[in-house]
Amino acid sequence: MRPVTLTTERLVLHVPDETDVDAITAACQDPEIPRWTTVPSPYTRTHAEDYVRLAAEWWADGSQTIWCAYRDGELVASIGLHHITEHASGGHAELGFWVAAPARGHGYIVEAARAVIDWAFHDLRLARLTWRAAVGNIPSARAARALGFRYEGLARQALTSERGREDGWSAGLLAADDSSPVDWPIL
Ligand SMILES: CC(C)(COP(=O)(O)OP(=O)(O)OC[C@H]1O[C@@H](n2cnc3c(N)ncnc32)[C@H](O)[C@@H]1OP(=O)(O)O)[C@@H](O)C(=O)NCCC(=O)NCCS
User: Fold this and answer.
1) C-alpha to C-alpha distance for 131 and 152, rounded to whole angstroms
2) What's the CATH fold of domain 6-127?
3) N or C of the chain: less Cβ packing under 10 Å?
């Protein structure tokens, strides 16, 4: 797959490269990122170097598409589609993201994710996106709800990471859905 740059009103989403290593390393020092994602902890510069190298490989083989989102030269978020799976009836993938601590609360992730979702449904022709989070991750759940994801349930001990096994919330968004937010029973 050829790397794609996405642009929104406030953000530019580009495929990570060596120029992002310092900013990614700095952002991933915030304990909330390894607390809720599969990002390793402690997080070193080598992790970021490996990540940008792998991101190029994932884009090339079409398994994952990762972006770094910048506003005015500052890294505000990382967002990606994971486990991209093709199917004759339209593929599927999982949406994942984090926002750098100083950039939280400004709606950047919803803005970035709208562009990614639009690209996933229209250019990649996916039929479905999944969102999953460790139970208790209210900010992530609210972001997913704002994007139009429908809550689908709690999968017991379904998430694995360096933290071990955890219960996971999951939600889905179909290409055919109206993406207006709907109520979630957990929020
Ligand atoms: C989850 C995360 C990306 C949200 O980023 P953010 O910048 O706060 O998101 P936004 O400003 O776009 O807000 C998204 C929603 O979360 C809500 N929110 C943000 N921080 C919140 C908090 N501390 N408690 C409750 N709700 C919160 C916002 O009000 C908004 O909901 P609304 O649209 O219903 O009002 C960010 O908190 C983060 O990076 N967390 C650590 C990594 C992580 O959890 N990644 C997701 C793994 S599944």
Assistant:
1) 10
2) Aminopeptidase (3.40.630)
3) C
